[in-house]
């Protein structure tokens, strides 16, 4: 028997902080009428710049930061203690700044392989299949616990001026249905993947006392049915949000299959409604954005179809040095006019539209009446 959609009982952490519960409710309510726009690494760096205070390429174009800022825990393991500490402090400042502005943070985890070289990608000549090794009783389980303690310490450090902890949407082991990461489908069994997911949540939440995470499950787009989508699902009691990463159907390498992309999004949204979970389009985008109407004719059209309840959509990062690796516009980029239409559409919300995200009694009118 499923609970009524929108009730906080759906959260898997019954001891979640007041602000984290409020964010969960806010996202659930917002998804019924609007969608938040997100951008990975938006305020850390952008096209041709890095480290500037209160800057993002999206803000340079629209006057507002994205509503959702993506960061990454990739630098919190596999390096020296000094490097990890330096990375954690920079990341802490970023997350706290977003929280103080009233924005929302989502965390990806490009997790360096804890048992071999090769980084987070799978490299045939180097990488070791490590999910089996980091699960309980595995040879690298204690090392994994040490890494999770570093993440917990970070989660306990992101305090705002009032002393409250910034909530974060934590999205570990993403795109697990592909083979490009060491935790990918061909590199571990379903049972081991689920065991590691469940241990990760339990250890952070129940042992280390992390209560400011919302846990997000997001495969890539290699499914066309609910059964395939849930093939490695760890269970409703271990997931707060379901999502999907999908570049393939939205223009990558010139390939568009909008109908299929919408079908997959609807599978995600329908499951969330049925299981009383949040849903999101956790990653997408078109590299270099050569399509001058991509924002309204591809992305917005898909998001508005089928009466889906999606809390946010996030596009990937803008590299600071590459002339072509970017997914959000910057001043004078060819898709700027269309992006401004996307920004001004009443359906989309950016950071300046957000009110009282972390207060549970926020009225729904506060985020449906946009002031742009």
UniProtKB/TrEMBL annotation:
<keyword id="KW-0326">Glycosidase</keyword>
<feature type="active site" description="Nucleophile">
    <location>
        <position position="283"/>
    </location>
</feature>
<feature type="domain" description="GH26">
    <location>
        <begin position="18"/>
        <end position="352"/>
    </location>
</feature>
<feature type="active site" description="Proton donor">
    <location>
        <position position="175"/>
    </location>
</feature>
<keyword id="KW-0964">Secreted</keyword>
<comment type="similarity">
    <text>Belongs to the glycosyl hydrolase 26 family.</text>
</comment>
<dbReference type="InterPro" id="IPR022790">
    <property type="entry name" value="GH26_dom"/>
</dbReference>
<keyword id="KW-0119">Carbohydrate metabolism</keyword>
<keyword id="KW-0378">Hydrolase</keyword>
<dbReference type="Pfam" id="PF02156">
    <property type="entry name" value="Glyco_hydro_26"/>
</dbReference>
<protein>
    <recommendedName>
        <fullName>Mannan endo-1,4-beta-mannosidase</fullName>
        <ecNumber>3.2.1.78</ecNumber>
    </recommendedName>
</protein>
<dbReference type="InterPro" id="IPR000805">
    <property type="entry name" value="Glyco_hydro_26"/>
</dbReference>
<dbReference type="GO" id="GO:0016787">
    <property type="term" value="F:hydrolase activity"/>
</dbReference>
<dbReference type="InterPro" id="IPR017853">
    <property type="entry name" value="GH"/>
</dbReference>
<dbReference type="InterPro" id="IPR016714">
    <property type="entry name" value="MANB/E"/>
</dbReference>
């Amino acid at each position: 028997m499923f609970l009524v959609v929108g009730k906080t009982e759906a959260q898997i952490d019954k001891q979640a902080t007041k602000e984290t519960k409020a964010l969960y409710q806010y996202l659930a309510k917002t998804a019924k009428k609007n969608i938040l726009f997100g951008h990975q690494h938006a305020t850390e760096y952008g096209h041709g710049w890095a480290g500037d205070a209160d800057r993002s390429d999206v803000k340079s174009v629209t006057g507002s930061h994205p509503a959702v800022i993506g960061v990454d825990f990739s630098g919190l393991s596999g390096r020296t203690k000094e490097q990890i500490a330096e990375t954690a402090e920079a990341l802490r400042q970023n997350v706290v700044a977003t929280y103080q502005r009233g924005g929302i943070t989502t965390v990806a985890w490009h997790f360096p392989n804890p048992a071999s070289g090769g980084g987070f990608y799978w490299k045939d000549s180097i990488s070791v299949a490590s999910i089996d090794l980091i699960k309980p009783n595995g040879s690298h389980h204690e090392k994994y616990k040490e890494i999770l303690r570093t993440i917990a310490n970070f989660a306990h450090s992101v305090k705002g001026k009032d002393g409250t902890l910034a909530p974060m949407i934590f999205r570990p082991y993403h795109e697990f249905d592909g083979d490009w990461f060491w935790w990918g489908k061909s590199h571990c069994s379903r049972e081991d993947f689920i065991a590691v997911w469940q241990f990760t949540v339990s250890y952070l939440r129940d042992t280390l006392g992390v209560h400011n995470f919302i846990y997000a499950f997001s495969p890539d787009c290699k499914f066309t049915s609910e059964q395939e989508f849930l093939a490695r699902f760890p269970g409703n009691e271990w997931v707060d949000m379901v999502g999907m990463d999908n570049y393939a159907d939205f223009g990558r390498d010139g390939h568009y299959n909008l109908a299929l992309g919408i079908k997959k999004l609807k599978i995600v949204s329908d499951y969330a409604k049925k299981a009383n979970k949040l849903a999101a389009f956790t990653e997408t985008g078109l590299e270099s954005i050569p399509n001058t109407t991509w924002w309204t004719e591809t992305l917005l059209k898909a998001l508005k179809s089928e009466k889906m309840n999606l809390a946010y959509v996030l596009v990937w990062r803008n590299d600071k040095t590459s002339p072509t690796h970017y997914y959000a516009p910057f001043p004078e980029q060819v898709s700027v006019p269309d992006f401004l239409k996307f920004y001004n559409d009443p359906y989309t919300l950016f950071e300046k539209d957000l009110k009282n995200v972390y207060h549970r009694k926020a009225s729904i009118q506060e985020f449906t009446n946009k002031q742009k």
